[in-house]
Write a structure and sequence with these properties.
This protein is α/β, with parallel strands linked by helices. Helices cover 41% and strands 15% of the residues. The chain binds farnesyl diphosphate. The site of farnesyl diphosphate (FPP) has 19 residues, from α1, α2, β2 and α3.
């Protein structure tokens, strides 16, 4: 009872509308226990469901998770294939629960490299949860922030044939980013002790608060999440302007 993060958020807390997470540290978590890296990923996947529900219950409307980066293809084939299988298993197992629990699922990234079974599962999960309103969970899979921006320019050009990119404004481009269904993240969490963005949501994180935790992802509990949200609630967000507290 002495730890306020256990009963977070208090009713007057500033809750981030959109939380983005780089789930790092699965491999080290497994290594510390003398287990193969893939055990770390499956333990990490088990954390996800509780966190989704906790975020929804706390008032977070959008949660975006970095599951597989464009660079992750460089990992040993066995690890890549186990991550893909985990993704398939997760979708097969959780799609019904997501539908019942009001979770809308979106997947962003270049999924053209995934096999057809996974691509079909993604399409089914997105379609079946499309009308859910409690929380939108976006999984970034084979995603890279630079890819997202180049892709947005290409899609804008396709929609505006003959128009020069010299006419392009930030507001024109934003609807073509893969995250157009969500506002920009307010809070980015990276677990696992590194303080890098690693090509995640480069455009969208422009004004996000960045929270780095040493905790390895499979140990990132609801209490750790509350700590991050309590840290966020203390921030004075100015978006480049003068503080409200000073201005008023
Ligand atoms: C980084 O840890 C984590 C990943 C590359 C994969 C994250 C995937 C999951 C948590 C499971 C699947 C998620 C969903 C949404 C079903 P790392 O391997 O880089 O760890 P290390 O830095 O300790 O080596």
């Amino acid at each position: 009872m002495n730890d306020p993060t256990i009963h977070w958020p208090p009713s007057d807390a500033l809750v981030p509308r959109h939380v983005a997470i780089i789930m790092d540290g699965n491999g080290r978590w497994a290594k510390q226990r003398g287990l193969p890296r893939t055990f770390g990923h499956s333990s990490g996947a088990r954390q996800v469901k509780d966190l989704i529900n906790h975020c929804a219950d706390s008032g977070v409307a959008f949660l975006t998770l970095f599951a597989f980066s464009s660079e992750n293809w460089k990992r040993p084939a066995e690890e890549v294939s186990s991550l893909m299988s985990l993704f398939v298993l997760y979708l097969e197992k959780e799609i019904r629960a997501m539908r019942m629990e009001g979770v809308r699922l979106r997947v962003i990234g270049d999924i053209s490299r995934f096999d057809s079974r996974l691509r079909n599962l993604i399409a089914d999960a997105q379609r079946e949860t499309a009308d859910n309103k409690r929380i939108t969970v976006t999984v970034a899979a084979n995603y890279g922030g630079r890819w997202d921006m180049v892709e947005a320019v290409r899609r804008w050009q396709q929609a505006h044939p003959g128009q020069s990119a010299l006419d392009l404004s930030e507001d024109d481009l934003a609807p073509y980013l893969s995250t157009a269904h969500a506002p920009d993240p307010d809070l980015l969490i990276r677990t696992g002790g590194e303080s890098r963005i690693s090509n995640f949501l480069l455009w969208q994180l422009a004004y996000a608060e960045l929270y780095f935790s040493d905790v390895l992802w499979p140990d990132f509990s609801i209490q750790e999440m509350n700590k991050a949200m309590a840290w966020f609630a203390d921030k004075d967000r100015r978006f480049g302007a003068v503080s409200d507290r000073v201005a008023s």
